[in-house]
Amino acid sequence: MDHYDCDGVNWSCYLKSTLIMVKQRVAVLGLGITGLASVNYLLKFGYQITVFDTRQTPPGEDKLPAQVSLIKGELCGNTLASFPLIISSPGIALSTPALQSAIQAGSEIIGDIELFARALKKAPYQHAKCVTITGSNGKSTVTSLLGEMAKQAGVKVAVGGNIGIPALELLSPDVDLYILELSSFQLETTHSLDANIATILNLSEDHLDRYDSYQHYIDTKHNIYQQAKSTLFNSEDALTFVRDKDKQSVSFGFSDATYHINVDAQNCSWLAKGECLLLSVDELKISGKHNWLNALACLALGEAVGLNIKPMLATLKTYVGLEHRCEFVADWRGVRWINDSKATNIGATQAALHGLSQTIIGDVHLILGGEGKGADFNELTPFLSDVKGKTYCFGADAIKINKVVPQAQMVEDLVVAVNLLSQEAKKGDLVILSPACASLDMYPNFMARGDHFKKLVLALSDK
Fold first, then answer.
1. DSSP letter at 89?
2. Of the listed 137, 196, 202, 207, which one is catalytic?
């Protein structure tokens, strides 16, 4: 008897043609929202699923279907090797010994994005277009902004991946365009995406605690280009250039790019394509020169998948950006306070300082700190030379920051930094939390760190 899901898909027929039907026993490594999405997707095909999680109280355990086994504790290579197919969480490196044992035994290890990629090649999804976006910084802004542009253009769009909704939960025969943010971790286990266009927005040192070298990280990011019909690269960042000279490509950047910034005779800056002026940057709600590049990237990606330029430009006039990404918090006594807690690597902080410094009449004051993930803080020095205000650092790598950035004064925590700057910053100045570090030494995640910062800043008005 055929089984129809609520979306009208004949899953029994689909099962007969799916690429992964031959493997009946599947291991899913790691719960959470991505692991649960993988479990629920695989259950539609009658798989015998066992979930493995190293945590004793994994998130989502209460939502796990009764027929799915859950094994907690350290991963065992011999046990995993008994599964022909393993769906691994992006948070688990392929270099993990247990996974290497399984690979050597012949197990196939993929992630949820690869499952999505294989599904997209089959009915009822194969009609949809797909955009894939990665980079060290800005990918969440570009992904969400492009999604808003598609909605404004009347396109049935689904946005997710490394941001928001897991890719497998986006699958629907009604969707005409998928926009996926992809991390380097997800790209490690993804091989068969066939996106209409893919982009690497920028590259800077990140996750060096996971990769053998910076080059290893870069090479992993470049996997996204190999799985796309066309590509978009950043003319300002040679590390994003497309290596395959035969691949159809388009570029964005401040200059010398298809989509670029044009400065007119009145010294006004415009988003432009070739000789065509599209929108004055003064009409953008998102601030900073790095967001000019993000806007250009969205225009390029949108046109590549057929979005009309008018609704895309209309969206740019109203889009205010994402929380924790150069987010305006308050103007207190003439000082602008900005929450950029999502800046978890040096490149993100560099971009924020470069992008905002020319929009401020006073001094810029900076708060750094957290877990540096093996990054070289010396790279901050050229950018901090233009920071005339105070710089404070806190957290696990505060000492490392202070050694290479002597002007960065160490403080106990974010509370102290905010209190000091509330006394020192003057009218016309800007204070920005742009840590250049991960948050896990003191907070559950960068969102909690940003929320704490906002709470502290908003409390200043009560004093």
1. -
2. 207
